[in-house]
Design a protein that fits this description.
The chain is α/β, with parallel strands linked by helices and about 475 residues long. It contains 15 helices and 9 strands.
């Protein structure tokens, strides 16, 4: 549990330091579609979403702040009216934002030049984040293509275009420069430098379609960068804005904490020794497979893998962070399912378990035979029939207790090989040395090389494939 909590904590701290990602309760992120019924008027939206806490549909009405990320101009954020409607086209839609088809200009286009091709929109109604008014939206018209090709054979042009694109693609640079200027200039995003960079960003976005590159002049290159951008090779300063304050507070809380493994004496079950040898073999097999999954995705911490709160993957994975995390969790679930089946495989076919039940049944049958010699006639016959029914129930109870006892002994053995110092001391010593070295070198949690991560792994999840049985054992101590 401690490892899982740390995995969640580290992931949220990384989101704060790297992306300034903050949860806003009074807000949603939805995909947009157009009102094909024509019901909505200019500047009106229809918003119905599923509340994540109650899992019930919620209709949002009133003034809301609409934007699409990234937003480079203050005019990219629009104050809109969310309205209710009984029209069938509108009231049947949920978890999307519906835009009006009326007005002088499409509302999505006012938001960073967006269109309804799968873009996601941020909708907020938190009064603390609502501006009193918004500026005029920027103009996001794509320039004309450089030239058209009259002939069919375009292989040379394709090669030349690819080379030009690699040489002139400055989209990330433009976005980062805009962020730096907006942070250090008093006018922020309304400064002249930011307005020019916003226009260049629009041109750079359309570059693959138009072939017209954006030209970044030297005067738009900032000499200083805020600390939250982590430009280690450039001159940096301490940002006074909200992002800088959050960044430094998150950094102060991001030092890694060691997880101390403690063996719980309540998890000792008499007879666990019979399953220790098997448990060690299964643990080695489990750790090998889990280690393979973590190696594949570049995850050093099993808690991050099993919880889905992965801080960082290997750079070879080009898919989104969410997609890679989902694939990794699917493999871990398969591993959990496989070893849970292995735990129960042949467990209740054990000869000792059957023999114990048979001995108790034989003893009960002998006692019945000695107390009844009339073949079950009359009142004794009825009593015998009643006793047989009770005996059947007792047999079921005995079998159930025997089943539980066998499961508990085996689960206790699995827990012991994962947590007891007799089996974890060597790994703990390796991990402690690695942690001491990290602190001595002013260790940066996110920049650690993968090899040192592997050396200090301590896998604890092996027995928790039967966590329900471990919980049952612990409950015995409470009872």
């Amino acid at each position: 549990i401690q490892s899982f909590m740390q995995a969640v904590r580290r992931r949220h701290i990384r989101d704060l330091t790297k992306k300034s990602r903050v949860y806003v309760q009074k807000g949603v992120v939805l995909m947009g579609i157009m009102d094909e019924s024509g019901t909505l008027g200019p500047n009106e939206l229809f918003i119905r979403y599923t509340d994540p806490l109650s899992n019930r549909p919620v209709l949002r009405t009133g003034v809301v702040l609409l934007s699409k990320m990234p937003a480079f101009l203050t005019g990219d954020m629009r104050l809109m009216d969310a309205v209710a409607s009984s029209h069938p086209f509108l009231k049947d839609k949920i978890d999307c934002i519906i835009f009006s088809q009326h007005g002088d200009r499409p509302i999505p286009n006012m938001c960073s030049g967006s269109d309804l091709d799968g873009d996601l929109y941020h909708i907020l109604w938190d009064e603390r984040l609502m501006p009193a008014a918004t500026s005029e939206p920027g103009f996001y018209g794509a320039p004309d293509p450089v030239r058209s090709l009259p002939h069919a054979d375009q292989r040379d042009e394709i090669v030349q275009f690819f080379v030009n694109f690699m040489k002139n693609d400055i989209l990330p640079t433009v976005a980062l420069n805009h962020l730096a200027w907006a942070d250090q200039l008093p006018a922020g995003a309304e400064s002249e430098e930011c307005i020019q960079l916003a226009e260049l960003h629009s041109i750079a976005v359309d570059f693959p379609k138009t072939g017209r590159p954006a030209k970044l002049s030297n005067k738009l290159q900032p000499a200083y960068f805020p600390d939250f951008m982590e430009k280690k090779r450039r001159v940096s300063y301490e940002s006074k804005r909200a992002i800088g304050v959050m960044y430094r507070e998150a950094k102060m809380a991001s030092d890694p904490e060691d997880v101390h493994v403690k063996f719980d004496p309540d998890m000792v079950v008499e007879g666990y020794q019979d399953y220790i040898e098997e448990a060690l073999a299964m643990q080695t097999f489990y750790n090998s497979r889990l280690d393979g999954i973590m190696n594949q995705f570049g995850i050093y911490d099993e808690a991050q893998l099993l919880s889905g709160h992965v801080v960082k993957f290997m750079k070879i994975h080009k898919r989104s962070h969410y997609e890679v995390a989902h694939r990794a969790m699917e493999q871990s679930r398969t591993l959990h399912h496989d070893f849970r089946n292995m735990f129960f495989e042949g467990l209740h076919d054990d000869g000792g378990a059957k023999e114990g039940v048979q001995q108790q049944q034989q003893q009960q049958n002998t006692e019945r035979d000695e107390g009844d010699d009339d073949g079950g006639r009359g009142e004794r016959g009825e009593a015998r029939a009643s006793n047989n029914s009770l005996d059947d129930k007792e047999d079921e109870i005995i079998k159930e207790r025997q089943r539980v006892a066998v499961e508990d002994r085996k689960a206790a053995a699995w827990y012991r090989v994962a947590y007891h110092p007799d089996y974890t001391k060597e790994k703990e010593e390796e991990k402690a040395k690695a942690m001491a070295k990290m602190k001595a070198q002013d260790y940066d949690y996110d920049d650690d090389n993968y090899g040192s991560r592997r050396r200090r792994r301590l896998i604890l999840s092996f027995p928790w494939v039967v966590g329900d049985i471990l919980t049952r054992i612990k409950n015995y101590a409470f009872e």
